[in-house]
Amino acid sequence: MNSLWFFDDVNLFKVLCPHKFKSYKQNHNFDAYKKKDYIYFVEDSANKVYLIEKGKVKIGYYNEDGDEVVKAILTRGELFGEKAILGANKRNEFAQSVDNETSICPIGVETMHDLMRNNQTFSFKIYKFIGFKFQKLERRLQLLLFKDTKTRLIEFLDQLCEEYGYNCKKTGDHVIKHPYTQKDIASLIGTSRPTLNILLNELKDEEMLDFSRKEIRIYKKIA
């Protein structure tokens, strides 16, 4: 299984979280959040970056009409708030817990800069990780702007297969064990949950896939 929890064979949480370092451990605590709790709001000071120990976090903003736009839903081991590393002073998005038991490892920007200054290889990996994340976001935004809903779903499933999929040796199927709910997927491809369910059932009727709450089985390539 390949996901952002592993990056160049490095577990980001184990590498980055300050409680692993003696010089930071004494004054470091984890932050706990319930469902719908905000980690930060738009215009908040950008003085920390965050790693998810467990749970899920939604990243988004509100457009001029007041509608919520979901940029990403992140899971265990993923980094967010990383624009603070690059010099941003204010948040231009919100981060909100979508699980009832979300645990976050906060890292002060100065602490992060210290860690990066002391290890050039580590610093390179962080910048590479951020670049990969931006590419992933750009790809998804292009889908939202230029593709119809069914195509957005098919390409999103292709992406899920790359990140969470593996081949079932007995049948040759691609099995995707993923952390997202149908509501999460609907938000990420810019549609409603009922529409998503209709499209998934259409693909199921076409014998292209089958799905359950935590698993999608692709019978043949759908892109």
From TrEMBL:
Residues 147-222 form the HTH crp-type domain. SMART domains: cNMP, HTH_CRP. Transmembrane segments: none annotated. It comes from the Bacteria. InterPro entries: cNMP-bd_dom, cNMP-bd_dom_sf, Env_Response_Regulators, HTH_CRP, RmlC-like_jellyroll, WH-like_DNA-bd_sf, WH_DNA-bd_sf. Keywords: DNA-binding, Transcription, Transcription regulation. Residues 12-91 form the Cyclic nucleotide-binding domain. The keyword Transcription applies. SUPFAM superfamilies: cAMP-binding domain-like, Winged helix' DNA-binding domain. The keyword Electron transport does not apply. PANTHER family: CRP FAMILY TRANSCRIPTIONAL REGULATORY PROTEIN (PTHR24567), REGULATORY PROTEIN YEIL (PTHR24567:SF26). This is Crp/Fnr family transcriptional regulator. The lineage of its organism: Bacteria, Pseudomonadati, Bacteroidota, Flavobacteriia, Flavobacteriales.
